[in-house]
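Aim 2, interim progress. The first record below pairs a target sequence with its C-alpha cells.
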Amino acid sequence: MEEEYKLVFPKAKLKKQYLIGLVVTTYNRPRYLEDFFKHFNKSDLANTVVILVDDCSDDAKALAIINNFNLAPETKGVLIKAFRKTKKGFAVHLSLKFGWNYLVENFNPKYLGNLDSDTVMFPNWLARVSSFYINQENNFKPMIVSGFNCFHRKVLSKREDHQIVETLGGLNYFFNRKIYLEIILPLELYWDDRVCERVKEKEYLFIALRPSAISSEKLKLSSSFS
C-alpha cells in the first residue's frame, strides 16, 4: 500500500521507536485546516510520531496549507506527510488503515490514536488521554479511550473523571497495540460501526473522558468544551 502514497519526511532524524503513533486525516476543507493546525501546534507531542494522511485533496488552498505546515519545535513531536496518489475507496477508512499500519510497521508505538482535520483541541488533549490510558490500562478490560466530545453517547457507567459509554465516534480514538492487533487490524474498514461491533463482541470498553477535542462544526453547540 505504501507505493500508493507520496511520503514527505521531516528534516529531523527519526527514531526507531516512539511511545505514541498518531494519524491525522485530511481532505480539502481549508476553512477548518488553518484552525486545526493552529491548535494542533500547541499540543504536547513528546515521544510521538505523527503521520498526516491526505486523501487526494484537490483544493489549491487546502494543499498549500498542508504543504506549508510544520510542527512547532515546542511540540517535541515529529511529522510525516503522506499524500494519496489516486483517489479511490472510502477515503477516511483507507487513510486510517494506511496511517496506523505504517506507524506500527516502522516505529512500533505502544499506543495509537487519530484525529480528523476538522477538530479543535486543548493543548493538553493528548497528555490527558494518554496518561489516563497508561495509568488505568491494568485496572480495566481492554479499552478504547476518547477525549472527543461524546455528550450524545449512551452512558453505561459514570465516574468523576470518565464515563463508560455504549459507543464512540471514530474521530479521536486512543488505544494500545492489543486493541490494534485484535480489534482493528483484522477489519477491512476501520471506522465506527465495525469497531463498535467488535468491541461489544469482546465485551471490551469504550471510555469517554472530559472533552479535550471537538469537531469545529459542533463547537458552538457544546458548552462542555471549556
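The second target in this work package is listed in the same format:
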Amino acid sequence: MRLFFLLLFASSLLNAQDLDYTRDVIKFLTSKKCLGRGYVKDGQKHATNFIVKELEKSKAKPLFTSTFLQPYSHQVNTFPKKVEVKVNGKKLIPGRDFIIDPNCETIKGKWELEKKDSVNYVCKDKSKACSVKLVKKLTHSVSLFHMKPAKIELLRLRFPNDIKDIELDIESVFIEDFKTIILALLLRVKITIRWLYLRRITIIWERWERTVIFPEPMIMPVEQAWF
C-alpha cells in the first residue's frame, strides 16, 4: 500500500512534456502495429525495436556491453489462425465477448451446455470437451503448455440469460522453440518525492542504479525513499 501511494504521488509531479512523451510511448506499444506485443506476426519485434530506439536516445547503458538484446527461446501456445466462438447461435468477438484459456488445443464442434452453478457451464453429454465460465473481467494470459479441455471465459455483462449451447472452431499452434530476446539495461534514476505531513513538506532525494530486464516483471525500488 505504501508503494502504491508513493508511486501515485510521484507520478503527479511529472511535467506536461513528460506526460506527453509517456502517452506517445503507450499509444505506440498498444497500437495495432505491435499486435499486443505478442508471439505472432512479429508483435514482440516491433515493440522491441521501438523500445531500443528510445533507450538509445536516452543514452541508457546496455547490460550486455554493446547491445540491449540477448536472444533466448522458450515454448509457447499460440493462436495465429481461427479463434471462433458462437453462443446460442450468435458469433462472439474475441477480447470483447470472450477469451479462451491459453492452454487450449485445437478444437472444433458444437455442444449443448448445462448450468453447474451461477457462473459455470459444462457439456451436457458429460464429454468434458469444453467448459464455460462467466467472469466480470476478461484478462489475457499466456501458456507454455497446451492441454484439454477447452476453457472459455465469457464477459458476464454480455450474457444475462442462460447459455444453451456453444460452438467452437479454434486452431492452436504449439511452438516448442519460440525465438525471442531479453532486453536489459542499467538504469540510473534520480527521483524527487514531496510528502505533505502535519503541514510540513519534506523533500527526499534518492539515487540508485538498477538492472532492468524485460520481459521479466520488475518493480522499481521506490520504497527505498522511505519517509
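Confidence is low (pLDDT under 50) at residues 1-10, 193-209, 215-227. This observation will shape the mutagenesis plan for the next reporting period.
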